[in-house]
Amino acid sequence: MTDCLTDRIPIGVYALPGRISDPRLAIGQAQAAQRLGMSTLWLSERWGTKDFGVLVGAISQVTSTIQIASGITHFQSRHPAMLASLAMTAQALSGGRVIIGVGRSVDAMWAAVGLPRMTNASIVDYADIFRRLCRGERVCYDGPAGTYPALRLNDLPDQPAPRLVWAAIGPKGLALAGSHFDGVLLHPFLTPEAVRRSVELVRVAERAAGRPAGSVRVYATVVVACELPPEKEVAVVGARAVTYYQVPGFGEQLAAVNGWDREQLALLRSHPRLVGVKGSADSVFTLKELVDVASMLPAEWTASAAAIGSASACVEVLERYRDAGADELVLHGSTPEQLEPLFRAPGCRR
Questions:
Q1: How far apart are CA 46 and CA 49, in angstroms?
Q2: pTM greater than the 0.70 cutoff
Q3: Residues 6+ apart with CB under 8 A from 292
Q4: 45 with 102: CB under 8 angstroms?
Q5: Mean pLDDT of 269-283
Q6: Residue 110 is assigned to a structural domain of this protein
């Protein structure tokens, strides 16, 4: 390792990974990410203490160069005028450094909170409404995304509409991103080969839509546990993997993308701690409380789809994701401060 990792590929990072009770921790994490030369700070929105609108406003005032992305929010959780207003206010505060990452989530979640599920038609239309509002246009709409007789933002900063990034796993979601979005955020725990296949699907859709080659930015999310003690490593990697694979339907989709045996999911879900859990396990348990459940996952499912161990070993894994065609890597699971060993390279002045 003779140069900085960030010299070879743009690196982003998640702030406030997992469940947290004190969102003020994001301030120091954002400053650390910028100091390390990371390109984008991602904020995983969670109702309660991780509201993207509040966090992006605060972080924009203590940083100056790093981009700030929601990863992810959802179209139906905010009225389109409210999301556009949030986005353009954040653009004004940050000097145009905002990215809006959105996703579909699972239908059961929306049924539980009384919000409609999204269809491909409503997603495409909502994205168009959002962009038009951010450009100052008047929107009169009645269609799959809802009914909006007269929408307009009267006062706008001299900033462009933020880029829209779609979070996707399967081929339909990747095609949607390639056709209609500015970028795609790939899910954690994809192997480098799964990322390669995902990139190819995005590029095919990009070409079919007549868009310039490479115009859709591919962000590959990689869970990283670099030089962490064993007990923290299993919480960062294994327990986090549990929270994805135990969700019915979602776990099957993730396993299928990697080409893994989906029958293994039944064994995981039979663990006494998971029996009776509806939705994601991390809405009920902390990652520390899921450490013992992680032993039910096949070792390959974490070892081949995360960066674990020494700094040099982690860098080698990250370079495989770069070689798979990712335009930017998004490090997840560890805080920016925990990732400092990755940037201790000769000639790297961070």
A1: 7
A2: yes
A3: 271, 273
A4: no
A5: 90
A6: yes
Angstrom CA distances, 99 to 19, 75, 87, 278, stand at 22, 14, 8, 31
Beta strands at 139-143 and 146-151: parallel, antiparallel or unpaired? antiparallel
Q: Is residue 120 part of a domain?
A: yes
Question: Same domain, yes or no, for 159 and 171?
Answer: yes
CATH of the domain at 86: 3.20.20.30
Q: Which residues pair with 330 in a beta bridge?
A: 12, 221
| 109 and 246 share one domain | no
pLDDT digits (tens, 9 = 90+) for 288-333: 899 999 999 999 999 999 999 999 999 999 999 999 999 999 999 9
Given a contact cutoff of 8 angstroms between Cβ atoms, the answer to whether 195 and 324 are in contact is yes
- Domains of the chain: total: 2
Domain that holds residue 281: 228-306
Q: Which residue has the higher pLDDT, 72 or 8?
A: 72
**Domain shared by 205 and 120, yes or no:** yes
Residues 293, 332 share a domain: no
Give yes or no: residues 157 and 141 share one domain: yes
* Residue 65, burial from CB neighbour count under 10 angstroms (0-12, 13-18, 19+): exposed
Whether 147 and 172 share a structural domain: yes
The SS3 of residue 164 is strand
Q: Terminal CA-to-CA distance of the chain, rounded, Å? A: 15
Q: How far apart are CA 180 and CA 79, in angstroms?
A: 20
Cα 190 from chain centre: 13
Same structural domain for residues 292 and 316? no
Same domain for 323 and 264: no
Per-residue pLDDT of 141-187, as tens digits, reads: 999 999 999 999 999 999 999 999 999 999 999 999 999 999 999 99
Helix (H) or strand (E) holding 72: strand 67-73
CB-CB contact of 126 with 132 (8 Å): no
Cβ neighbours of 119 (radius 10 Å): 12
The answer for residues whose C-beta is within 8 angstroms of residue 210's C-beta and 6 or more apart is: none
